[in-house]
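Hello Y.,

Per our agreement to keep a running log of every chain we model this quarter, I'm adding this entry. I've kept the format consistent with earlier entries: sequence first, then predicted structure.
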Amino acid sequence: MRVKNENIQHSTFNVQRSRRRRSAFSLIEVVIAVAIFATAATVLMSTFVNALLARESAVSNDLVNADIRAVRMQLLLEPDIEAAEDGDEYETLNSGEASWQAIIQPTNVVDLFRVEFSIQFSEPPEGQAAEYLETLYLLRPTWSESEDRSSLLQDKREALEDIRGDYNF
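Predicted structure for the entry above:
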């Protein structure tokens, strides 16, 4: 009976021992888990850093765009064509002093002007260009000279009369 009890105890001990082996992780499994965690942490960290850099860049772009709008408003508020072509200087909130000028050319449409507008910033934010250029088409009756305006209007009237001459209304 004693032998039988020892066999039972011995087999019970083996079963418990094999259960312990199965419930524990091997060194390889632990190393693989740590490698997966490290890879995931690296990806998440780089994504977070990229998001922060993109946000900072967007804020900087918004500040420069606000300065450009403020300087452009100076051009739009200028009633005299010569003063608009000469340009001016304007103290911006974020980019230091901005000096602007415009090259203004009349078009074939009455009171419509093609404006090449340029701005030079004295202290642009880091990563932003110091110069800004754009082309605008502005409808400005105060910039038209009466002779040119009359000539354009007369040309348009004649063109309309030629077109209407073919039709009897």
